[in-house]
Design goal:
This is FixH family protein. This protein is of the alpha+beta class. The chain has 4 helices and 8 strands. The protein folds into 2 domains: 40 residues; 94 residues, Immunoglobulins (Immunoglobulin-like). The mean pLDDT is 85.
Length: 165
């Protein structure tokens, strides 16, 4: 009987094998859960044809240099959210002088996915202020990409991250 009790408390190869299999089983299960959650919340790349955009990067830099020489500035002055709708107000200026008679168009989208992308059309409020009504404006982060154009055909691209209250 004494021999049987001493064998019962020993760590054997079978015990070690079961512990190793259990450890890696738990690790595998945790990885599967986290990978599924990651893929479900962010389905993949949201930028179409990124390789071709990279090939034309020098063209984008040249456009930015032209815009820089214009001396225009843009500032988001007000972001208001009322339920599911809202509005965005932007101030446009050149050398501290308000720019009027601009045509502003753009898109508002969520950073992580394109399900809620929506077009923006700005109306002039005067004195360099432009306002756009937003139909579906949930709380959180939004990326705004706009293009302002004057009567001479000069354009200015604006990109801004907006946090809706």
């Amino acid at each position: 009987m004494a021999d049987h009790d001493s064998i019962k408390g020993k760590l054997t190869g079978r015990h070690v094998l079961l512990m190793v299999v259990a450890f890696f089983g738990v690790m595998l299960a945790a990885n599967v859960i986290f990978i599924r959650a990651a893929v479900r919340t962010f389905p993949g790349v949201s930028e179409e044809k990124s390789y071709f955009q990279g090939l034309h990067y020098n063209d984008a830099l040249a456009e930015r240099a032209v815009q820089s020489r214009l001396g225009w500035t843009a500032e988001v002055t007000e972001v208001v959210r009322e339920g599911e709708t809202g509005q965005i107000v932007i101030y446009m200026a050149k050398d501290d002088t308000a720019l009027t008679s601009l045509a502003l168009t753009g898109v508002l989208k969520r950073p992580a996915h394109s399900d809620n992308d929506q077009s923006l059309a700005f109306n002039s409020l005067g004195e360099g202020l432009y306002k756009a009504e937003v139909a579906a404006f949930g709380a959180g982060a939004w990326d705004m990409a706009l293009r302002a154009e004057n009567s001479l055909g000069e354009t200015f691209d604006i990109e801004a991250r907006i946090i809706a209250p």
